[in-house]
Amino acid sequence: MQETPFCLRVGHRLPCSMSDSNTTDFTNPSTFILLGIPGLEAAHAWISIPFFAIYAIAILGNSTILFIVKREPRLHGPMYYFLCMLAVSDLVLSTSIVPKTLSIFWFNSRETDFSACLTQMYFIHCFSAMESGIFVVMALDRYVAICNPLRHSTTLTNCVVSKIGLAVVLRGGMLALPFPFLARRWPYCTTNIIPQSHCEHIAVVKLACADIHISSYYGLVVVFSVIGLDVSFIAMSYTQILRAIFSLPTKDAWLKTFGTCGSHLCVILAFYIPGLFSFLTYQFGHNVPLHFHVLMANMYLLLPPMLNPIVYGVRTEEIRGRLHQLFIHKGT
Fold this sequence. Notes:
Blueprint: E1 6-9, E2 12-15, E3 31-34, H1 44-71, H2 78-95, H3 98-107, E4 111-113, H4 114-147, H5 152-155, H6 158-176, H7 178-185, E5 193-194, H8 201-205, H9 213-246, H10 251-284, H11 290-314, H12 317-331
Parallel strand pairs: 3-5
Antiparallel strand pairs: 1-2, 3-4
Helix pairs in contact: 1-2, 1-3, 1-11, 2-4, 2-11, 4-6, 4-7, 4-9, 9-10, 10-11
């Protein structure tokens, strides 16, 4: 006698009336299988090398920034507080993704518990939104420092910085909270295989045998509201900054300030453009090769944590000087 197919709803096994005749009964419906990078399984060992290198640089760079700012009282100011927030966000974001990805590449450890998948999903979306918010407040800090330098210390006091930081954290946490709850409420009965290296919201809910329009619409609203508002504020800030740069009296000052702001903008674009591409590909890009899409989805989450400490930290004169002092002291 043929067994009746069942759906997966976390903690329950329900008859899957809405599935087709090919629906299977999961042996362990509380887990998902992550494929890594579909189509490039044979190259996983080689692909793991740049992944590990990016992660190692991100951990070392961001930890170094936190260590230097903590030890150097002169760096206890708004710009460096925001830089520390960015470093913490980068550490959490990269650590929530890379260890599991490397375990897939190295040990073929593809199985992930459903609760662990939802937790990873929350951390990815929460700290991505936080990172975007931090880019906004750092652009605001640069705007005040360059366009209104005399008012910088009175405008961005420690109290104001604390309130801004709290607002950034709360916004990221609240915007990401519906993602795991929406994913948990759907029944899953067609497959438990996620063609990704991490639990991205849309990649998970697309496995549901239910109408997931609520999840899709909420994802669109979050992406376009966060990216739309944040990019608009960043663009306005840097427009005013560039106007101030072009009015500088000497060419050396112009080139130095423009070079710093240009590198900042490159890091910001490296975060937003691949992220927007990845999300739109999930929604509409059915002809994009899957392995290319998965690589882009990883790059927008992993490249900024590696680049941020280099661009915002090492290129900052005070941090670079402190690093130099540490190495000289170690050598002597």
